[in-house]
Amino acid sequence: MKKTFKIIQIFLLASSLIATSLTAYAQAQTWPDKPIRLINPFAPGGFGDTVARPLLDRLAQSLGQSIIVESHGGANGTLASNVVARSPADGYTLLLANLGPIAISPALQPATTLDPLKNFAAITQLVSGPLILLVHPDVPANNLKELLELARKDPGKLSYGSVGAGSTTHLAGELLSQRAGIEWLHVPYKGAAPVITNLLGKQIDVGIVNISLAKAYVDSGRLKPIAVTTLKRSAVMPDVPAIAELIPDFEVNPWWGLMAPIGTPQSVIERIQNETIRLIQLPEVAERFRQSGLEPEGTTAVAFDARIRSDLKQWQDLARTNKIVID
Question: Which is higher by pLDDT, 124 or 21?
C-alpha cells in the first residue's frame, strides 16, 4: 500500500511539473500579446530615461508590442525593485536595472533590500556609465599618479566630492582610497551640480561625477580631467586614461541593464536579450548612447549575471573593510 501511495505521489508531482512546463511553453510561444511595463528606478527625466530612449521604440517595434515606462523613484531605486519582484514572472514587467539598487544598496543595506540573485533574472547589460575624476586647474596634479602623490603627502587633507553618501561616486572614492593606500576626505553633496560648483569655487579638491556632466567643463578648460573609473577609456574623452591603467582591474561602472522577475521563461529572456543586443549594435543607437556619456554594451544574460555577482561581492567586501554603513 505504501509503495502504491508513493508511486501515486510521484505520478502527481510529475504531472504537475509537466503541466507547469507546458503552460510556461505555451505562454512563451504567444509572448508578447499585450503591452510590456518597464520599471524605471528613478524619477522621470533622469538618467533612466536617457538610457531607455534610444532603445524603446525600436525594441517595441521588434517585439510587436508597446513598452510603457513607469517611474518608481525613491529609496535609492529600491522601490522599483520591489515593484518588479512582486510582479508575475511572465515577461510583461521588466526592470531598468542600475548598479546602485542592484549591487550597492544590497551590499550597504542588506537587511532592507532585496537579494538581486534570488529575486531577479539578468537579461542583458545595456550600457556602461563612466565616472570621471576632475580637479580645478590650480590643483598641482595633471594625472592620477601625481594626484595620489599629493594625497600621500598630507593624509586626510585632500578632499573629494560625491553626489551623495552611498552613491557610486562616493564608493569610487572609497575604493580608490583602499586600492591606492591613500587617506582623503569625503564631502557628500545632494547631486552633481553642487559638486561641480564647489569644485569650480575650490571648496573641494577633487570631484567625481558622470563623464557626460563633465565634458563641457573639460572642453572649456575650467576643470582638469584626471582619470575615468571604467576598465577602458571612454569614447567621450578618449585622451583621458582609465584608473585601471595605473591600478590594475580597478573598476567602478554604474551600468544599466534589463532584468525580469525570477522565474520568467527562458525563451522570453533569450528573445529580449537577442533583440536588444541587435539594436544596441546599430550605429545610430550606439552613437546616441555615446552622446550621453554612455558606452553601449549588449551582453548575454550569463555575462550580465556574472557582472552582478562580481560587483555585489566587490561592494560587500569594501563595505566590510572600510566600515561603510548607510542608514
Answer: 124
User: For residues 25 and 35, what is the distance between their CA atoms, to the nearest angstrom?
Assistant: 19
Q: Is residue 145 within a helix (H) or strand (E), and if so which, with residue range?
A: helix 144-153
In this structure, what CATH number is given to the domain that contains residue 104?
A: 3.40.190.150
Residue where one domain finishes, among candidates 211, 245, 279: 245
**Are residues 86 and 147 both part of a single domain?**
no
Give the range of the structural domain holding residue 144, as residue numbers without chain letter: 131-245
Query: Which amino acid is it at 92?
Result: Y
C-alpha cell at 185: 576626505
Please, which residues bridge with residue 104 across strands?
none
DSSP structure class, residue 241: P
What is the value of pTM for the model shown?
Answer: 0.87
Q: What is the enclosing helix (H) or strand (E) of 113?
A: none
Instruction: Give the relative orientation of helices 266-280 and 2-30 as an angle to the nearest 10 degrees.
Output: 30
DSSP 103: I
Q: Are residues 288 and 207 in the same domain?
A: no
Residue 102 DSSP label: I
Give the end of a domain, one of 212, 245, 278.
245
Which helix (H) or strand (E) segment holds residue 306: the answer is helix 301-321
Number of domains in the chain: 2
Q: Does the pLDDT value for residue 22 go beyond 50?
A: no
User: How far is 205 from 200, CA to CA, in rounded Å?
Assistant: 9
Instruction: Give Cα 126 distance to the centre of its chain.
Output: 9
> d(Cα 247, Cα 240) in Å, to the nearest integer?
15
Say yes or no: 119 and 190 in one domain.
no
Mean model confidence pLDDT for the chain: 90
* 192 and 285 housed in the same domain: no
DSSP 11-75: HHHHHHHHHHHHHHHHHHHH--SS-EEEEESS-TTSHHHHHHHHHHHHHHHHHTS-EEEEE---G
